[in-house]
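Marked as duplicate of an earlier ticket. Keeping the data here for the record.
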Amino acid sequence: MQDQAERTERGRNRDLLTGAQVLSGQLGKTIQRLRKAYNLSLSELAEQSGVAKSIISQIERNETNPTLATIWRLSQALDVSIERVLAANDEEPFIEKATRADTPSLVSEDGKVRLGIIGWVKTIEWLQWYEVTAEPGGVLDSDPHQRGSVESLSVSEGTFEVEVGGVVQTARVGETLRYRCDRPHTVRCLGPAHGRATMVVIMKAAVME
């Protein structure tokens, strides 16, 4: 009887350890995807969160089990609730709702263009999409993405202008611009009205010569 109890206890401990390892692995992937969504380096996330760069690197590589305090600091720096970070796993329901308060955003240097990150965090390495809202005259300058990446801007309000490699094109309501974004590119909101659009980025869509 005692041997059976010991075997049962060892089995429970093994299951708990396996569960903790799975959660840690999912957490590391989630932190890495969120960090890349914000285009943050390990050093930049470390500075914003107060968590050592080496610790963040270990978390992303699933080499350590972070404390709740560490997870909280990272979630604050990445502007996402701690519940969302901990809940990310492969057993998620098919329908997932994100409120506006849960949607992280990026802001252009002039403060006039805001990108709401509405894409799924699990696809961030190959597919990204954003809700773009812009004040009149707002300018969004972007560095090159990975070679072969393509960006699509579909306008729902106002007028936008896109410039890539010296080529400029304008899109109004109901129109879409698609362009290579593996080189510096600029999006501008033209005219007196505010602008709204959906931006989709396909990473490594094709090698375009």
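See parent ticket for discussion. The radius of gyration is 21 Å.
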